[in-house]
Amino acid sequence: MPKLLLLLTCLALYCSTYAQTATLYGKVVDGQKAHVVLANITLVNTANRGAAAASTLTDSLGSFALAAPAAGTYVVQVTAIGFAKKETDPVAVTGGASIALGTITVQRESKELQNVDILSMRPTITQLADRMVINVQGTAMAAGNNAFQLLSKSPGVFVDPEGSIQLNGRGGVTVMIDGRLTYLSARDLRNLLESTPAENIKSIELITNPSAKYDAEGTSGIVNIVFKKNVLQGVNGSVYSSYSTNFKQHFYGAGTTVNYKSGRWNAFLVSDFNRRGGGREATFTRVFRTPQRTTYFDQTAIGNWSNIGPPSIRVGTDFTINQNHSVGIIGSYFTNTAEAEFLTETYIGDAPRSPSQYIDADNFNSNTIRNGIVNLHYTGKLDTAGTTLSADFDLAGVRNKGDGNFFNRFLRLADGQQTTDNLYTYTPNGFDIYSGKIDFSHPLTKTQKLEAGGRVSRVESDNDFRFYFNNNGKVPDPQRTNYFRYTESIYAAYLNWSGSLGKNTTLQAGLRAEQTHSKGESFTTGEVTERDYLNLFPSVFLQHKYSDNYNVAASYSRRLNRPNYGNLNPFRYYRDPYTWTVGNPYLRPQYTDLFNLNQTIKKLYVVQLFYQYTKDVMTELPIPDAANAVTVYTTGNVDDAYSGGLSAIIPVKLAKKWDTRNTAQLSYSKFTTFQGTEQLVNEQLFYYVQSAHTVLLPKAFRVEATFLYRGPAASGLYQQKALHRIDLAFNKSFAKKKWELALNITDLTKGWRYRWAANYGGNINEFDQYMRWRTLGLTLRYNFSKGLKAELKQRSGPDELNRL
Predict the structure, then answer these.
(1) C-alpha distances out from residue 209 to 77, 441, 647, Å
(2) Which residue has the higher pLDDT, 49 or 431?
(3) In angstroms, rounded to a whole number, what is the distance separating the alpha carbons of residues 279 and 749?
(4) Prediction pTM value
């Protein structure tokens, strides 16, 4: 609290010194009087046209406010993607009074294909002070893909087979949709993104150093997926059908997006029906060492899974009360049933390639999920100076009902003696989430703005996991059955200030406080784990424009990752007689300090230097039971991790209609922990190269190719070997762009293979898995639209879903 009071006092004193500066405010709309959001507003002194005196962005209502640093004559320049540049008449500033510029109307740019701007050929990348914005709307990679595939191709983004995301080689990434966190487990997040057509996405924002306004969750930053907005009056939308194959399985899908705008009402419906799936071919190699003996474990595995269910539905409506206030409601419902099989063959012996025992283990699992979310929201502009207020309330319910059959056959190779062991699990579980937040923004002067807000959330989780012997009827196994309940409450508040320190320098500073109280209770063992902790999360951003061709931004923030609810449940998740995963109720949050230095050259090239220090790193830990040749996987805390390096984005135009975007990264990572009294160190120099090419051909035909190479990497106790992939996309529009046909080929050379290894205390744990990334997909889409431009505010679900 003393730190918070000191910050508030300093901000107040600083703000008072600028109280006499003049504020220019207004609103930007298009030709149909719809708000233009995130338009660039630049204040230029007519006496010095070469430099900007101040700049800002329009808010969600198209409004802006900015200050002249001194008396003089100025013009306001308005630029926005898709609109022609607009400049106001000169305005004389002589004192500290506010100056109303009224409504500024900008007109959309209309270009024929043969005159298309080269930036529309590929995802346009914009580097801001705290984030990188990748505009994917209209690219061939977006056409025919889903959101999960699109995200995995974004520069610096790595997605593992379970759906966990790394950003610039670092884990602990939080995912948002339309600026709102979507707390799903990695696997459920993958299901959500796979059910979302990429054509519905406008841009992907990589927020490597979030400000205090954002939740502190996510030690490596935030990935924000921004959906397209409805832009037409009346009824418009699209219908699609798709087919894909990984050359072992076949999948299909269909869906529709419908938008409706009439007067003050704005509504949408998104529905998706798909049969999705995947599989893997894997080998697992382990060596267990004790003073008495060494055991060798060799396993091959084949996995197949698919899910199908009723269409997922997402509907919403906004009502504009007047030009300053709007309210709305969003609802979504998703359900499907997943069927999976995991078939393994294992050989165990005391010498390499000399097994004494063979185990045939076949696992068959089924799970039905139901997920419903409701969001109520309000957005308002409180005065002409640009003061805004927004509020959200979310209610979510998630229910899972699953079961599994495990059939194990043991064969002693010396004499052919055979035994069997059959098992059964029943795993019903569910979550209820309640969340509310409020955000307030107020311009203090023409160059300064104060933001404040708060958030309260509550999570209640119930997990009744039952395990049975099933050799002669179901007999409960008390050692592997567990009934677990978890509750968590988070109370958060933040204060964020931004302003100009001169003609070309801006500063943003913020402080966020989060109080967390959690309770995990195992009714099976009687074990109760409670935690209550308060943390402060500062953030600072300093940006300086040296010239129109060179801009530098430095930033710092502190972040955390809380354990997800499943990792806290001490239930044993069974895979085979020698492998299982167990939860860790003592798992602690991890904390990270992030430092970034971004340089933008000629508004095209981006170079980023970064460093992060993480304490109490959460990572998967393989725990060997050498005496029984068993490996137990759990999520635990290693001591520390360090990571630093640089990355660069270099777009190059090779020909008039051949454009490339190239990304490279070089970094060093180091993880340390102790096993008993021995310190274990895992370190690696990491490099990453991606080159995306777009070629425009005659008759609205477009080709994109992405080449990706990812070098060896370190993560926790594991070392990962290099992997690579080539993706191709072909897109053809016809009938005046009403129809679109897209063909996508991913991982053409089958190089996206996961090979991990850990070696500690002489115990070796290696696995080599190919997750059937190589796919061929075909999508046909029909677009229908007519009318005038409008704006629709789309939102997503509550924050806590990401940690289920």
Answers:
(1) 29, 20, 15
(2) 431
(3) 17
(4) 0.77
